[in-house]
Batch of 2 targets.
Target 1
Amino acid sequence: MLEIALDSGLWRLPEGASYAAISGRAHVKASVKQNTGGKPPTLVIESGCDSLARLCAYYEAENERLSVKNAHLQNSAQTAVEERSKERGLWWVDWCVFIAGGIVCTVITILTMKIYERFYVRPGGR
């Protein structure tokens, strides 16, 4: 916590001059900016903290990493949706192959039974 008294004379600082204070890792800089056109001067205060700057840098890097990962996941999901939609268009081909396979299996079974009856079944009994 930094405290600057209101009567510290900051308002009387010449333009370009500043007041700075440091407490631990925190720092503050106060300066007066003279305005033109008869307006009163403006008090400009800048502050910072080393540990806060380090945390900001960490979170910026983490945000960038997660943004890239999110973009990759969105691309993967979009690709999966496109592939699935292409596969759905050919469902009737699968259905036709299934029916044709059933017909072929039935015909082979019937022919096998007829051949078996003709050659292996004794006349006059089963």
Target 2
Amino acid sequence: MNDSVRAVEGDRWVVVGLDNGGNANNATVLDSAGEFLVEGLLESPSRVKEGPVVAVEALAEAFDNVLTQTGVPRAGVRSVGLDTPGPASATGVISTKGSTNFVDQAWRGYDVRGALEEKLGLPVVYNNDGNAAALYAHHVHFGLLGATRSSVSAIVGTGLGGGVIESGRIVSGAAGMAGELGHVHIPMQGLLDGDQSIPSCNCGFFGDAESIASLTGIERNLLPYWLAKHPDHPLAKEPSVATAAKLVRGLGEAGDPLAVKIFEQQAAAIGRLFTIAANFTDPDAYFVGGGVVQASAAFGQWFLEQVEKNTSLRDEQRQVATFALVPDLDMAGARGAALAARQSVPRGTS
């Protein structure tokens, strides 16, 4: 048995969490006592580029593997939580327009939740990866008080994901598109330099949060502008903007002025997004996750402070609201998916 997993004790029932990504699936097990049996990553190839049939088979293999690793009998599993990148419906149907990770045409309009449920013969609860990470952050931060608290999370990656949690549960919305925080339009006055153009997003919007606060936003909008201002910067010598964009985080940690300016703009964008949330849901907590805060602890804390500084709260709100980083981000998706599955199991289940 892997050193990072623990066997289930006695006859406790469990749920399984499966986090589906562009390259790998990560799996975990949560028992009825609320204990995660997998401490670190338990990854296997996701094979999503080979189409949905192959990818669902890979998810089933990840499910079987995590049961083997934890010594859990299949009969002990009550539900399975699945998360994938969006956009997808509330019931796990991938968008008819496709997705960044799901490039094969067969994915368009594909019911990935239903397919996995049929494959496993078990109930499958679906959420997008941002919502799953948001639920895990909420659970860790509030513990037993989670069911009485609310939170909003922004997850900075290739795009800008997120999640809204009310009374300890994910707000998914009628079509499953709630919590798509990256595509909320934010005020640009004072965020952009005087001659900086309104940024565009891959979704077709102009001036939404993702057009600034994402790796795509750096590549598409921020870096080209700042390199035009500073043509002698070392990043200007990189073979492509895409290559240069991936180096910005390391330079930001090192204190490079251009990189720091980019991250200041990203933090300001998230702060403005949270300001909208403050006037819409008035949450108890605001969480920030993603690659930008997986850098050094000092840099992650600096970025969080910049976000908080740019979030406009009333005095009454500031006295009760907290700002925090999403913990265990590599595990947050699988664990959040498992928590959602556990919430679906009726009370009193044996």
